[in-house]
């Protein structure tokens, strides 16, 4: 299994392409849908689904372009079912975007923590709220990486001043779910550089003393 980080849009949100053979999962396609389709065609892979760690505008801007082009389902946590089409919830209303972000409803919903299989891919869904109420992380145990969305970053954590954010809840999510993973686990965040669980346990200043 391979993964590729693709920064997209004005906030350079990390989208991820997780590949197994000729199939892939597209995670958090935040913007520049045509660019992402060109990359998928160059890699000669076809998406089996779109997964969203959460519904903030910078993670969802290219959802409809990718979904309509490949006719694949979109997955999101049930708690953010209504966020995709609501600029006041997905945040685009507050960031002076040229056009407010509105995406068609998701097709499938995460409602609990579980290990699921989509096509060629089996992974665990962790509920990691705090940045937003329905934030989730995707853990690929055999490949030893977790896609953490905007929960955990290299030397930082997600902001909690947007609708539904909760700082204490975010810290609890990180410590109980993410830092419980093996220290060698690679963390693929929603922004910035990759890191490891061990590195963040040792040196992330936001996590010390919790």
From TrEMBL:
Keyword Metal-binding set for record: yes
InterPro entries, per the entry: MBL_Glyoxalase_II, Metallo-B-lactamas, RibonucZ/Hydroxyglut_hydro
Keyword entries, A-Z: Hydrolase, Metal-binding, Zinc
Domain Metallo-beta-lactamase positions: 12-191
Entry cofactors: Zn(2+)
The UniProt record lists the keyword Metal-binding: yes
Descriptive protein name: MBL fold metallo-hydrolase
Biological source species: Robertmurraya beringensis
Organism lineage: Bacteria, Bacillati, Bacillota, Bacilli, Bacillales
């Amino acid at each position: 299994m391979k993964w590729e980080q693709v920064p997209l849009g004005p906030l350079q949100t990390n989208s991820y392409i997780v590949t197994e053979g000729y199939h892939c999962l597209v995670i958090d396609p935040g913007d520049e849908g045509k660019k992402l389709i060109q990359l998928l065609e160059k890699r000669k892979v076809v998406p089996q689904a779109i997964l969203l760690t959460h519904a903030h505008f910078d993670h969802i801007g290219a959802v409809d372009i990718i979904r309509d082009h490949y006719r694949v389902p979109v997955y999101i946590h049930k708690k953010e079912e209504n966020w995709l089409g609501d600029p006041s919830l997905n945040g685009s209303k507050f960031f002076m975007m040229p056009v407010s972000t509105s995406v068609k409803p998701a097709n499938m919903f995460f409602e609990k923590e579980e290990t699921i299989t989509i096509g060629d891919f089996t992974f665990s869904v962790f509920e990691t709220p705090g940045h937003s109420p329905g934030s989730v992380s995707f853990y690929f145990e055999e490949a030893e990486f977790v896609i953490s969305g905007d929960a955990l970053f290299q030397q930082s954590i997600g902001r909690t001043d947007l609708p539904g954010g909760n700082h204490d809840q975010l810290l609890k999510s990180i410590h109980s779910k993410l830092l419980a993973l093996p220290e060698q686990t690679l963390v693929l965040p929603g922004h910035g550089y990759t890191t490891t669980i061990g590195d963040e346990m040792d040196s992330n200043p936001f996590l010390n003393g919790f």
